[in-house]
């Protein structure tokens, strides 16, 4: 005979879920299917809990992605910083580039303006270091922000182009027929492009980020400091 005070329905508590478990499962889904297909519902199925349980830990998919990026940034070792401001900027930008090269999907998430407000302290330290280097080199704080933003655009663009190219090759997607394109060039109208047509695939595959970064930083700083009125800056 049932006891009068016996509970009805499901007995016991739902399985405990930690933020660490959630982030680990989210990384698995991203590695397997890509970040675009990550959803709270799919993540809940992966972990074996209800979607409502996850909302106790994350607000939405965007919040989850930034938690992942923050956790990743916390694991990136800070580079040894040279005393020269220019070299500090280059060393920090290179650290950002190398980190994003290992996690290119993060670069896509961070393409929207306003992402700075969502970053954790470890990632913000990298931004702060570039700003400080630019200011120590003679830029105003406003110019330092422009220096960072331009370096960021250059870095993220390079990462995304290479990541998308690698994805196409890995997926055996049919690339554009470069041979047909180059063979149809009118040398009288495009002599320089026609002259390097045979070398184009090899040249395009080369890693020129370090050289480009140095030239870019030099140009940005020179432009910023030369535009300052006499008596300001260095």
TrEMBL record:
Gene3D superfamilies in the record: Tetracycline Repressor, domain 2
Domain HTH tetR-type, chain residue ranges per copy: 16-76
Top-rank lineage group of the source organism: Bacteria
Entry keywords, A to Z: DNA-binding, Transcription, Transcription regulation
DNA-binding feature ranges: 39-58
Alphabetized GO MF terms: DNA-binding transcription factor activity; transcription cis-regulatory region binding
The keyword Transmembrane helix is assigned to this record: no
Gene Ontology biological process: negative regulation of DNA-templated transcription
The protein, known as: TetR/AcrR family transcriptional regulator
């Amino acid at each position: 005979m049932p006891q009068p005070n016996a509970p009805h329905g499901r007995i016991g508590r739902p399985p405990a879920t930690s933020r660490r478990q959630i982030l680990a499962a989210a990384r698995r889904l991203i590695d397997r299917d890509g970040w675009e297909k990550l959803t709270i519902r799919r993540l809940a199925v992966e972990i074996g809990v209800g979607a409502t349980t996850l909302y106790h830990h994350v607000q939405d998919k965007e919040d989850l992605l930034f938690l992942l990026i923050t956790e990743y940034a916390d694991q990136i070792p800070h580079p040894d910083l040279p005393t020269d401001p220019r070299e500090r900027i280059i060393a920090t930008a290179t650290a950002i580039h190398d980190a994003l090269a290992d996690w290119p999907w993060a670069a896509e998430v961070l393409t929207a303006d306003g992402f700075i407000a969502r970053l954790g302290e470890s990632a913000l330290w990298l931004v702060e270091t570039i700003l400080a280097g630019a200011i120590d080199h003679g830029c105003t704080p406003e110019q330092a922000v422009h220096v960072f933003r331009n370096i960021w655009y250059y870095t993220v663009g390079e990462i995304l182009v290479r990541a998308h190219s690698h994805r196409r090759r890995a997926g055996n997607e049919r690339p554009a027929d470069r041979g047909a394109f180059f063979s149809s060039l009118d040398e009288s109208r495009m002599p320089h492009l026609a002259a390097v047509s045979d070398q184009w695939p090899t040249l395009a595959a080369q890693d020129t980020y370090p050289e480009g970064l140095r030239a870019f930083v030099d140009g940005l700083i020179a432009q910023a400091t030369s535009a300052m009125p006499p008596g300001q800056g260095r």
